[in-house]
Design brief:
Layout lengths: L22 H5 L30 H5 L28 H5 L29 H5 L29 H5 L29 H5 L28 H5 L29 H5 L28 H5 L29 H5 L29 H5 L29 H5 L18 E6 L4 E6 L15 E5 L1
Antiparallel strand pairs: 1-2, 2-3
Length: 454
């Protein structure tokens, strides 16, 4: 691709757009400016609340309350059976007239059986027409191979060793050209295309700009900012402060040490409480009478003790053992029960009772047989020698026509068949073709102009 791989040095002008000259841009021109389709998707923007929210819903606005009235209860009428006899006749029985039906006569003719007195021949057609040939049995061509066990360990040869015949490896002749550098007899010339084609131009003397001397300004510096210049404030009075003035009150009088509490609340004179004297105890004269009303009015009666209902025990002691039998123990005696055993399936194979002799069923019942190996019918891989020389010709070698590889004209400093036109601001040289031709190899048109980066 004819593309500038790096940014140019800009020795011609100070353009700001990079070079995008490619083969794709040259072959495929740019269409007119077509704006992309506008998106109909709504923008996700925050919508500010624009009014007061009402607490009315669709249900509240559309729903109309109505009075709920109880559903009238329908009184079921009493069933009164009708008098008379019910008629069980239907429309079908009334309109349908029965007809007498006769049995259907068969259209199929009666089967006639032909009987003959001859003997039946039971030979089928296939057996009568296709008779077996008298073919003699073919003797087998199999060679009997009697197996002889080897006398040595691993003495038998394998099938691969028997069938494989070793042969010498003849490597194929390589038609690949040798990768050897061809040495030239011509002495080395240190001339390059750059040395031959490069023309040294004399550089113009560099323009040196003289340094300007700093001259301070005579006008005074205005420290007005945009805010101070444009926003000067509205005319009005300054706001008055409601804060009281912090004036220090000074006095030359001596401090008495008397507070407002001491001045207003003076101590009162309090009298002492009177002390009440206790009177002296004087005991009453005479003796104390301890008789109560119950003692004086109570009349004592003579009462005999209560007779116990319990029979009097004679106090006899019996040395016989206590009989603790009751009616329940005699009539309801405990049964003799035992735990039921677990029902297990009987084993079909009896367990061995003797000693283990380390002999398996395979060892005891296996009968070794003599091995007869199968005969190999694989053809013998014998090499047929051929005295004719090997012809190494292939379809690719006979029919392939090498094509001439053409070099891109942009690789030359001055392409053959082109005339220099101009050089753009990025340093690309443009050449114009002398006569429009078509290349013979691939029939691709040669471009009219070629951009070459110098």
């Amino acid at each position: 691709r004819h593309r500038c791989p790096h940014k140019p040095t800009r020795i011609y002008d100070n353009g700001q757009q990079p070079c995008l000259t490619t083969e794709y841009v040259e072959k495929y021109p740019k269409y007119s400016n077509i704006s992309p389709p506008r998106s109909l998707k709504p923008k996700q923007e925050y919508q500010v609340h624009r009014g007061k929210m009402e607490g009315i819903t669709t249900f509240k606005s559309d729903y109309l309350p109505y009075d709920i009235v109880k559903r009238p209860f329908r009184v079921q009428e009493e069933l009164k059976p009708k008098t008379g006899k019910i008629e069980l006749g239907t429309t079908y029985q009334k309109d349908y007239n029965a007809h007498k039906i006769q049995p259907v006569t068969l259209v199929r003719p009666l089967e006639r059986k032909h009987t003959t007195g001859g003997k039946l021949d039971t030979i089928p057609t296939y057996q009568d027409d296709y008779r077996s040939w008298e073919v003699q049995r073919r003797e087998p061509s199999k060679v009997e191979h009697i197996y002889h066990p080897p006398t040595e360990k691993f003495g038998n040869s394998t099938t691969f060793q028997d069938d494989f015949v070793p042969r010498e490896l003849n490597p194929r002749q390589s038609f690949k050209p040798p990768c050897v550098a061809k040495l030239s007899d011509v002495p080395f010339d240190s001339t390059t295309s750059h040395r031959t084609s490069y023309i040294a131009h004399q550089l113009e003397p560099k323009f040196i700009r003289s340094k300007e001397e700093y001259k301070p300004s005579n006008q005074p510096f205005e420290d007005l900012t945009t805010h101070r210049n444009d926003f000067q404030g509205l005319p009005g009075q300054l706001a008055k402060s409601c804060k009281p003035e912090n004036a220090k009150v000074g006095s030359n009088a001596h401090f008495n040490g008397v507070t407002e509490f001491q001045d207003r609340f003076q101590p009162w004179l309090v009298s002492l409480p009177e002390v009440r004297k206790t009177e002296e105890y004087v005991p009453p004269p005479g003796n104390m009478d301890f008789n109560s009303t119950s003692h004086l009015d109570y009349v004592k009666h003579e009462i005999s003790p209560a007779v116990p209902i319990r029979p009097v025990s004679n106090g006899r002691r019996i040395n016989a053992p206590f009989q603790g039998n009751t009616t329940t123990k005699e009539d309801f005696k405990a049964w003799g029960s035992c735990r039921q055993e677990i029902t297990k399936k009987q084993q079909e194979i009896p367990k061995p009772t003797g000693r283990f002799y380390d002999s398996t069923t395979f060892k005891s019942h296996y009968i070794p047989h003599q091995i007869i190996p199968a005969q190999s019918f694989k053809p013998v891989h014998a090499i047929v020698p051929n005295s004719a020389p090997f012809q190494g010709e292939t379809m690719y070698r006979t029919e392939y026509i090498p094509k001439k590889q053409e070099t891109c004209p942009a690789n030359y400093p001055s392409p053959p068949g082109y005339v220099y036109v101009n050089t753009d601001s990025e340093g690309h040289k443009f050449f114009r073709q002398l006569t429009p031709e078509f290349s013979e190899s691939n029939s691709n048109p040669i471009p009219k102009e070629v951009a070459v980066l110098s």
